[in-house]
Design goal:
Layout lengths: L1 H24 L2 E5 L6 H17 L3 E5 L6 H8 L7 E6 L1 H8 L11 E10 L1 E5 L8 H10 L5 E4 L5 H13 L4 E4 L3 H9 L5 E5 H9 L4 E5 L25 E8 L4 H15 L2 H9 L3 E2 L4 H22 L5
Parallel strand pairs: 1-2, 1-3, 6-7, 6-8
Antiparallel strand pairs: 3-10, 4-10, 4-11, 5-8, 5-9
Helix pairs in contact: 2-9, 4-11, 6-11
């Protein structure tokens, strides 16, 4: 009987070792809750290329768009916590906690926050015909003409939509939202003068600003951006205002500590590579690469922060 138990224990150990070996050799998948070609997808693919050598593994990206990123997030929340299924998410991960009345997962408890990959500052732009040259003049104009100015928004519930809502909440102005199905058509209508204002990612409007087709009223970062040294931070006119989008890497909850360390270290190592930083710069993004603990605390603070703005906006998921 004793020999039989020893044999069974040996077989179990061998099976477990084989299983772990298979897990260790399997490709790592990064799920993206957005279509191919967008900022989240581009950053995920850049990160996958740079993380592969550090992990000694193939890292692939799978797009599962829909429901503001919730489809991909739900798949990762329910995945085996072996570190082979990851999520590249974005600010909406925190916004959705309030925007959606119910979610099939808990945005904090069902995930392991691995690292914040990057932040993406945005800029408040206007058609050149708008008679306001900065944020102070815009606020004065909006208060003089309540409900007569408008914001183009690329997607309801997005970080850029909420940037505008936070602006309205803090400044006390009434500016009407004009929703679009995507950033590109929203930018085009601001360029054409059909809509007056828009919060946009720097990478999407930088060339238009430089060409004089749009004017930049303020950047959403706490301080001025090197890319636009002459454009004030909105916080200079509206103290405390800040709204940068972020992109972060998550895994399922209950990942082994060794896997958390291995993957987060690989991601941070990737963010130090020159080619990765060049790709981020092309997207107008700023690398972060913080620790798992720091990112986890940040996500929880973002959920609290955006809950107030979402409730103020009255926005409902599309």
């Amino acid at each position: 009987m004793k020999r039989r138990n020893i044999l069974l224990s040996s077989l179990a150990a061998a099976w477990a070792g084989s299983t772990f070996a298979q897990i260790g050799n399997a490709p790592v998948r990064i799920l993206v809750g957005a279509p191919a070609g967008g900022s989240t997808d581009t950053l995920a693919r850049s990160l996958a290329v740079s993380m592969g050598p550090a992990l000694g593994r193939t890292v692939i990206v799978e797009n599962r768009p829909g429901a503001g990123g919730n489809i991909a997030a739900d798949a990762v929340a329910k995945a085996t916590p072996d570190g082979n299924t990851l999520l590249m998410s974005f600010t909406s991960h925190a916004i959705n906690a309030t925007l959606y009345p119910t979610l099939p997962f808990d945005p904090v408890k069902d995930f392991t926050a691995l690292t914040c990959v990057a932040t993406s500052p945005s800029v408040l732009v206007a058609h050149p015909s708008l008679p306001a040259k900065d944020v102070r003049e815009l606020i004065a104009l909006a208060k003089a003409k309540p409900g007569q100015l408008n914001f183009a928004i690329g997607a309801v519930g997005s970080s850029l939509h909420m940037a505008g809502e936070a602006f309205k909440m803090q400044s006390g102005v009434d500016i009407v939202n004009i929703p679009y199905k995507g950033t590109a058509p929203a930018v085009q209508d601001v360029l054409g003068g059909q809509v007056q204002l828009m919060f946009a990612a720097v990478g999407n409007v930088k060339a238009h600003i430089q060409a004089g087709k749009l004017k930049a009223l303020g950047v959403t970062t706490a301080k001025r951006l090197p890319a636009f040294p002459n454009v004030p931070a909105i916080a200079e006119a509206l103290p405390g205002y800040e709204s940068s989008a972020w992109f972060g890497l998550f895994g399922p909850a209950r990942m082994p500590a060794t896997r958390v360390t291995q993957i987060s270290d690989a991601a941070r190592h990737a963010l130090q590579q020159v080619d990765m930083r060049q790709r981020l710069d092309t997207e107008g993004a700023i690398p972060v690469g913080n620790s798992s603990e720091q990112f986890s605390a940040f996500v929880q603070s973002e959920i609290t922060r955006w809950a107030k703005v979402v409730k103020f906006s009255g926005a409902k998921p599309e």
